[in-house]
Amino acid sequence: MTSPKLLLQQTVNHIHPLSEEDFEAFYALFKPFSAKRKEMLTEAGCVEKYLYFVVDGLQRLYYLDEQNREATLVFSYQSNFGGILDSMMNQTPSKYYYETLSPSVFLRASYTQIDELLATHPAIEVLLRKGLTGAFSGILERLVELQCFSSEEKFQQLLRRSPHILQIVPHKYLANYIGIDPSNFSKLINSIKI
What we know:
Blueprint: H1 4-15, H2 20-27, E1 31-35, E2 40-42, E3 50-56, E4 58-64, E5 70-77, E6 81-82, H3 85-90, E7 97-100, E8 104-110, H4 111-120, H5 122-148, H6 151-161, H7 165-168, H8 171-178, H9 182-191
Antiparallel strand pairs: 1-8, 2-7, 3-6, 3-8, 4-5, 4-7
Helix pairs in contact: 4-5, 8-9
Organism: Arcicella aquatica
Protein name: Crp/Fnr family transcriptional regulator
Domain Cyclic nucleotide-binding: 35-121
């Protein structure tokens, strides 16, 4: 099994390689953290305090409206950064929930420590900017899918981006992510060549 430090370093290098000194300073902020299945890490109305790095497990970020309708927005899993980034970066109350869907192991760093480190390590600020820009690009692509694609096209796009998603995410959450009733999800799977 790959060490958490190596997983983090591989992910960081994919976004924006850091010098050994910068990476060690960044890595020093992260502390191990574990959570059980279906544990709420951040709730709507709370300010996100942490940047999570997923070592193992599956999580989702979702929105819950006044009628208790859920909208699954993002899944995170091994080698992903997680948390409610807009709340963390703006230090404002979240509109979203971040929960584990399986037992999960993380490295997590507090916003306060990250913010302090940015003042002395410009390369880490570049890393965060590039990471957030990549996330923003993904959100724009998702908005196009939501507004223009059929359920089948959304599902095919999801499988192109994350071919392993069917093996790790319960189908009811995938149905919610695509925007269809869970009872229709098996019909969708059967209608598409995977």
